[in-house]
């Protein structure tokens, strides 16, 4: 289990976003060339707990969930969920594999179970919906000892 104190808050924000009318669920356009990336840890490293993950973003700004400003969004850390086949048409769920940073955070320190993990970022709009096209990082593989 991943220990993140803000998951309850993120779940409440997600529930509020999902209660919005259907018209508000249209995906927000992303600026051309916008990209999210993981600053740390680097691809292929072995780390020990707690693990600090730092988020990067080019071509857009960070705004808290619920704040609807053009060219902004907030991060979601996706853990051990493949990008291939991911459903970008719905709001990002809130669970142990989808951690929301609706306060506009750009880093987290958490404990991951020992073993191999794949991490990636997905930017969400005010309602936690991925942008069109999705603004996401390349996956980063790490091993926790």
Note down, in words, how this protein is organized.
This protein has 145 residues and is mainly β. The chain has one domain (7-23, 34-144): Immunoglobulin-like. It is 8% helix and 33% strand. The protein is built from 1 helix and 9 strands. It has one helix at residues 7-18; strands at 35-40, 46-47, 51-58, 61-62, 72-79, 98-100, 107-110, 115-124, 140-144. Strands 2, 4, 5, 6, 8 and 9 form a 6-stranded mixed sheet that branches. The protein has a 3-stranded antiparallel sheet with strand order 1-3-7, with no helix packed on it. The longest helix is centred in the first third of the chain and has 12 residues, at 7-18. The protein is globular.
How is the secondary structure organized here?
Blueprint: H1 7-18, E1 35-40, E2 46-47, E3 51-58, E4 61-62, E5 72-79, E6 98-100, E7 107-110, E8 115-124, E9 140-144
Indicate the multimeric state.
single chain
Report the CATH architecture. Sandwich
Helix-and-strand structural type:
mainly beta
CATH fold-level label: Immunoglobulin-like
Helix content: under 10%
Shape estimate: globular
State the major sheet: 6 strands, mixed
Give the N-terminus to C-terminus distance in angstroms: 15 Å
- Outline the low-pLDDT stretches: 3-24
- What is the tally of beta strands? 9
Mean pLDDT: 88
CATH-defined superfamily: Immunoglobulins
**What is the CATH class name?**
Mainly Beta
Order of helices and strands: HEEEEEEEEE
Rounded to the nearest angstrom, the radius of gyration is 14 Å
Number of domains: 1
